[in-house]
């Protein structure tokens, strides 16, 4: 996590997080949650502890249905609202159709790609070897020209399944794309780099959501 983007001075980054200093990027109206987040922080060094505290704060705010980044609905809070809605829907879909029972997880990759109007989060899961085609294909219909079987779960959420080769048993993948047409706001960064924006979206905003809302059979994998 880029602690500079949260408004944490370098001299404080070298020390463990403290209850009496809350990062300026976070919603100061919810300062009562910050000592709790700090108390639950873990890590081998101060950077990991700060990262843990911020993620804890975002999670606590979500659990209390309050804004994590500002007292008004900022771009970051609008993004978080969209991500929560998409996250809940993908969890419902995976559970309803027992996707993780038929497509057992081997490896998960997560990435953010900035676009001209916002960003796309892609979670791609490589499944374990299958003896036959995934049963979920019956629900998805015809394969698209790009080789994917897809289903739109929300206007900004698409579930997909594809095979790296010609239906090779060990090359099946599944996952989802979340499209958000809003740019994040990084405190102290008038012109943040693409990499800084991508890390902020994934590490500060999305990963805490993944930990909060998990589909069944994904105890050890953040899908």
Structure notes:
With 223 residues, the chain is an alpha+beta fold. 35% of the residues lie in helices and 18% in strands. It has 2 domains: 3-63, no CATH class; 103-212, no CATH class. The chain has helices spanning 10-13, 34-39, 46-63, 75-96, 99-102, 137-140, 194-212; strands spanning 105-114, 119-127, 149-154, 157-163, 172-180.
Helix/strand layout:
Elements (H helix, E strand, L loop, with lengths): L9 H4 L20 H6 L6 H18 L11 H22 L2 H4 L2 E10 L4 E9 L9 H4 L8 E6 L2 E7 L8 E9 L13 H19 L11
Antiparallel strand pairs: 1-2, 2-5, 3-4, 4-5
Number of domains: 2
* Overall pLDDT level: 87
SSE string: HHHHHEEHEEEH
Q: What is the beta-strand fraction?
A: 15-25%
Counting DSSP E segments of at least 2 residues, the number of strands comes to 5
Overall outline: elongated
Report helical residue fraction. 25-40%
Radius of gyration: 19 Å
Q: Order of strands across the widest beta sheet?
A: 1-2-5-4-3
**Unreliable segments of 5+ consecutive residues:** none
The termini sit apart by 20 Å
Quaternary status: single chain
| Count of helical stretches | 7
Class inferred from helices and paired strands: alpha+beta
Largest sheet: 5 strands, antiparallel
Question: What's the quick description here?
Answer:
The chain is an alpha+beta fold. Helix content is 35%, strand content 18%. Helix 4 packs across helix 7 (194-212).
Give a quick set of tags describing it.
single chain, alpha+beta, 35% helix, 223 residues, 5-stranded antiparallel beta sheet, 2 domains
């Amino acid at each position: 996590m880029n602690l500079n983007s949260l408004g944490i001075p370098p001299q404080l980054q070298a020390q463990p997080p403290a209850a009496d200093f809350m990062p300026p990027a976070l919603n100061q109206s919810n300062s009562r949650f910050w000592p709790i987040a700090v108390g639950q922080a873990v890590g081998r060094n101060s950077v990991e502890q700060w990262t843990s505290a911020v993620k804890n704060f975002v999670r606590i705010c979500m659990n209390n249905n309050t804004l994590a980044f500002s007292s008004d609905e900022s771009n970051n809070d609008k993004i978080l609202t969209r991500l929560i809605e998409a996250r809940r829907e993908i969890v419902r879909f995976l559970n309803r159709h027992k996707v993780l029972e038929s497509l057992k997880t081997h490896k998960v990759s997560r990435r953010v790609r900035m676009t001209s109007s916002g960003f796309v989060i892609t979670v791609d899961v490589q499944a374990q070897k299958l003896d036959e085609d995934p049963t979920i294909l019956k629900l998805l219909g015809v394969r698209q020209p790009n080789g994917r079987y897809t289903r739109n779960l929300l206007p900004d959420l698409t579930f997909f399944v594809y095979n790296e080769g010609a239906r090779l048993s060990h090359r099946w993948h599944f996952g989802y794309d979340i499209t958000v047409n809003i740019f994040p706001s990084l405190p102290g960064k008038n012109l943040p780099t693409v990499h800084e924006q991508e890390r902020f979206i994934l590490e500060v905003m999305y990963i805490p959501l993944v930990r909060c809302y998990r589909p069944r059979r994904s105890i050890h994998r953040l899908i």
